Amino acid sequence: MPDIKTILAKDIEAENLDIRYDMSVKRVLGNIPLLAPITKYTVKEVEDFPIPMIEKCIDEKSIQISEVFVEPGLTNRKIVNDELESKIPGEGRTIFDIRFTITLPDGSKTKIIINIEAQQKSNPGYSLLNRGIFYAARLISAQLSVEFTNDGSDKEQYDNIKKVYSIWICMDCPEDKKDSIINYSFEPHIIYQGNDKLKLYPNCDLMNITFIHLSGKPDQSHHQLISMLDTLLAKMDAETKKRKLQEEHNLPMTIKLEKEMNDMCNLSSGIREEGIRDGILIGEINTLRDMLKAGLTTIEKLKESGLYSPDVLAALSN
Description:
Blueprint: H1 7-29, H2 32-40, H3 51-57, E1 64-69, H4 81-85, E2 95-103, E3 111-121, H5 128-141, E4 163-172, E5 180-185, E6 207-213, H6 224-233, H7 238-249, H8 255-293, H9 299-305, H10 310-317
Parallel strand pairs: 3-4, 4-6
Antiparallel strand pairs: 1-2, 2-3, 5-6
């Protein structure tokens, strides 16, 4: 039997390549020079801060990339390597892409917890907003016994809950969502007011879900953040991408960020090349099958020619 890659083996290889690229994207996005502009345009508490100040607000030690479970009871537990390696996409436990905290320089040491998700498909077959609400809710409930208590001896208790943002970078967007940033949060709606001295609860927007819908084309959007992310995730060579990010978006290219961007671009090229090779192989097999059916050649003649790979000949023999 010829030594060929089965369809399953090829699917597994392609899946592994996709997983490595997905992880590489997360590592790139987890760099402070990128977290700062993402935060500036999505977290209202820092929207007026210059980027250098926001970078100082980010707690570098708090940055966790694919290290935290979303599931109840597991969010405060760090993932070990073998758990990551055994994770099958679409099955088992879900993991926050990126989680980190910022502390505002306002004297009160106000802390905000942020989650960033890199989402390939904007329409995965279910409500992405509902998933975002669940992630944000987990960011709040996981603070119990960490940031706040429900112990009667603690006077502040729930007042110590920290505000959370779950930010979703959506890449493959439908036309009615492209090139937009939308925030969803709690707002009070007065149903009845019989008291002219009514006071609303402050800080009711503890939970925020924000969607960054990319345009899909680096030079299309007029929004600074969308244009930068479109360029970062575009299919172009690493050197061109780095130059555009530096010159057009003032993104500082640290040694760590440059290395991780090179890795991401190489993996992206690998995925494209694999797809091209598969397309060529399928076209070649279909042409030869037509020739066999028409009696224009035989398997024996194709083997004798030495022009065709074992993969092609094996596919034709089945």
